[in-house]
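seq/struct pair 1
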Amino acid sequence: MVLFSIDPGNEYSAYCIMNDSYALIEFAKLPNREAMDVMLQKLDKVDLVVIERVASYGLAVGREVFETCEWIGRFAQEAEKKVKTEYLYRKDEKIWICGSMKAKDANIRQALIDRFAKFDLKNGKGTKKNPDVFYGVSKDVWAAIAIAVTKLDMLKEGEKDGT
């Protein structure tokens, strides 16, 4: 299985393509229209698209949140034409990866490094001459990776349960 995950934003979105062995195939943070173009080009090579969905917790939100919601819909509408598309809430990633709703981005990042890094246990990146698993990963790409890892874990857990 190959999964395309998206951490959407109002102007830029991060994505990653990951296989069911948790190998990062491709990742980037791009302006939304470019991210859409990449997704459309890759749909023939992926089995599932997973998009992080915005959740309301009763707080006032601004224009950026509504624009992000519009982009979530655009990504989903295009992806659904060719491949199965699902959503994942940030709270589910936090609970799955860190075991707590109180987890912050830094906690999620460290949990991913602890789980997957081969030798650079501080940053998970290594160097240009000696790259580790997360070499080149920055900013919102960590969130896209967390989406992919959470969904793959959930799918594998479902296989164990027979669901």
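seq/struct pair 2
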Amino acid sequence: MTSNEFLAEFADMPKEPVRDHIDSFLEAIRPVLPDLDYEVEGIVDRISGLSRRLQRMMDETLSEFGLDSGDYKVIGALSQAGPPFRSTPGRLARRMELSSGTMTNRLDRLESAGLVRRLPDPADRRSVVVELTEHGSETYQKTVGVQAEKEALVTSALSAREKALLNSLLRKMMVEFERREGRADHCD
């Protein structure tokens, strides 16, 4: 059974799928690289292409709110920390694998934009904590909402069953990567 026949059996997919540019690319390289597993190449090329397009979409969304991906990660980390939506600059820098200088510059920009504020650390007078402002929280929530709407438009090409199947298959691939990296339950 081919992968298309398998998917057609378990999903609402036509027997003759629509072709994309990856199909043309794979046909073009087949004479030059006849020993490749073209199912694997198709999977990897499609995931890579979708990843680039989704990242571009996210960058456009962030730009609409005057953010870049680094800014978004900081306000996201503070938002996910839960009330009182605080962290130390050092913890944020470690979480994002940034130098303290880079984190300081990022926090300066975010503070100037009114998205975070620095407060004296109640546990250590020599330190500060970074707190997400109400404006920062609202900006984060709006950004997530706008991006989620865009992602829903793209994924509307799939039925509910297809989405569940795709999630299941991608999860299996992710678990295999995590197993090989020795990073079970790792969150990127």
